[in-house]
Design a protein that fits this description.
The protein is mostly beta strands. The chain is built from 1 helix and 8 strands. It has one domain. It comes from Bradyrhizobium ottawaense.
């Protein structure tokens, strides 16, 4: 689980937690050896940053999608994250309200299986 420590206190959860910094990003390039993994980018370096101006990524739960093995082009950055105000579409993720996210986080642990059907 990742969260914006500059906006929120650490949520209650049994999941390991990591504060999102300005250098945190996600590799979505299927040609890169870090495809579908969290990465660190230097200032000025382009990439899919996790620290966003909006609130969608204030809390992120990584879904174990396309990780063992990682297959290029089979999907990257599939997260549970906060929803837009109008519940607009995501780019393949699952989104929810902040209250639903905090309630879910209180129940999740490292061995929890999330099945999306």
């Amino acid at each position: 689980m990742w969260w914006r420590g500059d906006r929120h206190s650490r949520p209650q959860s049994f999941l390991p937690a990591r504060i999102i910094t300005g250098e945190d990003a996600w590799c979505e390039d299927p040609r890169d050896r870090h495809y579908n993994q969290g990465i660190r980018l230097d200032e000025g370096q382009g990439g899919d940053r996790l620290k966003r101006a909006d609130h969608l990524y204030d809390f992120i739960i990584e879904i174990d999608h396309n990780t063992r093995p990682r297959v290029a082009g089979r999907g990257s950055a599939v997260f549970l994250h906060l929803a837009r105000d109008n519940f607009g579409p995501t780019a393949g993720c699952v989104s929810m309200t902040k209250s639903a996210m905090l309630q879910l986080l209180r129940r999740l642990g490292p061995r929890t299986r999330i099945i999306i059907g």
